[in-house]
Amino acid sequence: MAFLPSPDGAKKSLSAAQAKALLATVRPRDTAGKARRRVAAELIADLERVYQRSKQADKELKELVASTGTTLMDLHGIGPSGAARLLVEVGDVTRFPDRGHFASWNGTAPIDASSGDQVRHRLSRAGNRQINRVLHIMATVQLRNPTEGRAYFDRKKASGKTSMEAMRALKRRLSDVVYRQLINDVTATAATGSGGHRERQQTPA
């Protein structure tokens, strides 16, 4: 994103393309204004080059992840970088006896903080923070769209959970989804020698 002062109340946070279009409408007459416009044009050109390099890197990463045979990118909210991070950090998923161990490892298994008749859980600060971040992004993406993850979150809120508690519950549920997908990939690879592709999933079932 480019951050440029703009006339007529235009927003300051712009994409490189938006900034370029806006700059094309500016025609300063004084020397200082012309100098500022030239500097802004150079900055925008730099941003466009960075964007193109980033776009190419994302394409290459997506191809590399796909070549592993994983179906992680079929999950709603998991992109190439998230899938790559999962593959690198998790390694052999069969080292986790079950989904509960996987959740404890990635820090999505809540810690009991109940008091008397009030049942509460608090966030675990332990676990792999990089994978926890991947799951947080996955949850955030699902909440922005009409997914089963969004429906699950809303059901938790309707049952009396706070937004923070509902988010923790959703991340724990998504941890199970990712674990199952990784296990399915291992099973598919063992059976066929390659991981097949599946339909994109939205559901933290």
From TrEMBL:
GO MF annotation terms: DNA binding; transposase activity
Species the sequence originates in: Actinoplanes regularis
Coiled-coil residue windows: 40-67
Pfam families reported for this sequence: Transposase_20 (PF02371)
Transposase IS116/IS110/IS902 C-terminal domain sequence ranges: 71-152
Lineage of the organism: Bacteria, Bacillati, Actinomycetota, Actinomycetes, Micromonosporales
Name of the protein in question: Transposase IS116/IS110/IS902 family protein
Membrane as UniProt keyword: no
Record-linked InterPro entries: Transpos_IS110, Transposase_20
GO biological process per UniProt: DNA transposition
Keyword Coiled coil: yes
Keywords: Coiled coil
